[in-house]
Amino acid sequence: MLSKSNSQPSAGKAPISNPGMGEAGDFGGNNFIPANGLTVAENQVLNLIKACLRPEGLNFQDLKNQLQHMSVASVKLAVDFLSNEGHIYSTVDDDHFKSTDAE
Questions:
Q1: How far from chain centre, in Å, is Cα 98?
Q2: What's the domain of life for this entry (predicted)?
Q3: Under CATH, what is the fold of the domain 40-99?
Q4: Residue 46 belongs to what H/E stretch?
Q5: Which of 16, 51, 98, 102 is the most buried (most CB within 10 A)?
Q6: DSSP state, 58?
Q7: Tens-digit pLDDT profile for residues 14-65
Q8: Which residues, 6 or more positions from 71, have their beta carbon under 8 angstroms from its beta carbon?
Q9: Domain extents for the chain?
């Protein structure tokens, strides 16, 4: 009787050996958050800004041209987020950006 009651609750439960692992392969859209806490879109924008060697930084128009697979609104949201979080800053005007990382 005791062994039957112990086996019943586990029959309806999901295994807990790998909690959350069911979503580990879901890389769809911009929802995947890498280890640095940024979305895929934010990482793409940040990496392009970091790669720019010009003293004035990367122009928003150049950024949009390099990220044609993203909507203008998505690029703008990523730039706004990165700026608000201190990852990038504007330089000569509101459309030029540099990374705060000294790379």
A1: 18
A2: Eukaryota
A3: Arc Repressor Mutant, subunit A (1.10.10)
A4: helix 40-51
A5: 98
A6: E
A7: 444 444 434 444 444 545 566 678 899 999 999 999 999 999 999 999 999 9
A8: none
A9: 40-99
